[in-house]
Amino acid sequence: MDSVRVFAPASVANVSCGYDVLGFAVHRPGDEVFMSLNSSGRVSLDMIEGDDGRLPREPEKNTVSAVVINYLKHIGVKQGIGIKLYKKMPFGSGLGSSAASAVGGLVGVNELMGSPLSRMQLLPFAMEGENLACGNAHADNVAPSLLGGMVLIRSYSPLDVITLPVPGSLCCGLVYPHVEVPTMAARQIIRTNVPMAAAIRQWGNVGGIVAGLFMNDTGLIGRSMEDFVVEPVRKMLIPHFDEMRSLALKNGALGFGISGSGPTVFALCTDKEIAVKVTVILENRLKDHGLESTCFVSDINTEGATFI
Questions:
Q1: What is the SS3 assignment for the chain?
Q2: What fold is seen in the domain 171-299?
Q3: Residues sharing a CB contact under 8 Å with residue 157, sequence separation 6 or more, in sequence order
Q4: Could you tell me what percent of the chain has a pLDDT over 70?
Q5: Nearest C-alpha neighbor of 253 from the set 219, 287, 301
Q6: Number of CB atoms found within 10 A of residue 212's CB
């Protein structure tokens, strides 16, 4: 095999209460990465489409190529590889755009090299891509995009990642208001000291989501989707957040929250019909406020990155 094309999906990080430790993958949107072997002996970023010229073209500075360079160094191979990146996700949306690029690059190069590493072994390389993109090597986007499904990062040091069971009917509505929230800025406003009472409630909710997934108890999942630490601060960056939450829950959503750093919001629902209904209602309400948005509806993507 001398070329490969990979689709790497978007992801919803945090899942309300699980800041930096919970995330799940969706089927769309996502990025595509095309990679081909050549005799140059170096990694080149030959084309980026869909970024409006915003991403760095130097291979060492772009996540999709930087992770490939690090991967090849790790396995001790000097190989020429040309990369074409097709960005099909909005920037600063909270949907894991940089994570998808890194995952696409790693899954592609690993396949071209004969798959010497498992997907779990690829995860630290993807996390370094996140560190390059936003200054923090978190895994709640890259892990679900790479592995698929709902993922729990139990520990970062040492890294301990668990894929969780997902009730088959769960569906997610995503609404991306056309405002941008840079990930670095969204991380900087988070409190570093949390009152013990809020922390206890937060721990209980993370446990509740995990238990609900294992018990196939959607009611428990829904009532555990409360964030007492991050959302109260970050929601100020998202127009009409409280109104959207009220509408989503009133119209049947299990839970509602911020996808990653925002401004995308997500409504977790028991089935696709409810997810579509909620998404349309939120999109129309934002229009009433003079704000355009982009919407997606997807069940939980249990495959992660796939070959096209």
A1: CCEEEEEEEEEEECCCCCCCCEEEEEEEEEEEEEEEEECCCCEEEEEEECCCCCCCCCCCCCHHHHHHHHHHHHHCCCCEEEEEEECCCCCCCCCCHHHHHHHHHHHHHHHHCCCCCCHHHHHHHHHHHHHHHHCCCCCCCHHHHHHCCEEEEEEECCEEEEEECCCCCCEEEEEEECCCCCHHHHHHCCCCCCCHHHHHHHHHHHHHHHHHHHHCCHHHHHHHCCCCCCHHHHHHHCCCHHHHHHHHHHCCCCEEEECCCCCCEEEEECCHHHHHHHHHHHHHHHHHCCCCEEEEEEEECCCCCEEC
A2: Alpha-Beta Plaits (3.30.70)
A3: none
A4: 97
A5: 219
A6: 21
Domain boundaries, the chain: 3-164, 171-299
75: CB partners within 8 A, 6+ apart: 113, 116, 117
Choice among 86-95, 179-188, 202-211, 242-251 with the minimum mean pLDDT? 179-188
Structure tokens at 153: 């990062």
How many Å apart are CA 31 and CA 98, to the nearest integer? Answer: 9
CATH fold of 3-164 reads Ribosomal Protein S5; domain 2 (3.30.230)
φ and ψ of 13, to 5 deg: -90, 155
- The pLDDT tens digits for 248-259 are 999 999 999 999
Tokens of 236: 């100020």
What CA–CA distance (Å, rounded) separates 37 from 56? 22
Residue with tokens 């919803």: 12
54 token code pair: 């915003």
